[in-house]
Amino acid sequence: MTTTDSPRYVVATYVKAGRDDDFERFMRDVVVPAEVRARPHQVGMWHLMRPATDPPEGCTRAWLMTFHGPSTLDDWSLEPLFTEAYGADAAREHLQNFEDMVDGEQTVYALDGESAL
After folding, report:
1. pLDDT tens string 59-102
2. Contact of 75 with 88, CB cutoff 8 Å
């Protein structure tokens, strides 16, 4: 399913220097298959955007994820997703890999929709 609606959540994830390719591979090779296996109703309901390699001065560098559709933030949490898809032991390993790539906490924004201007 492809989304054309406004996102419900936007998450900024700050990835450690030099780990962008690892992060993108992790999202493609670990997160996407987990979603397909455990939560097929969410497939295509989110997007991942890579940060610019040469951001202008004053810009914060972060990977952005947008999540669409009727859902709660918990529906997108990695820990229960990985546990459902891979089991508890593998979930812990995947979460540790994720945490090793991320620099600090993610910033999460909840949205109600687009404002008409």
Report:
1. 888 999 999 988 888 999 999 999 999 999 999 999 999 999 99
2. no
Q: What does the pLDDT read at residue 70?
A: 84
Q: What is the pTM of this model?
A: 0.88
In sequence order, the 6+-apart residues with CB closer than 8 A to the CB of 45 are: 1, 3, 67, 68, 69, 71
Domain at 9-52+59-110: CATH architecture: 2-Layer Sandwich (3.30)
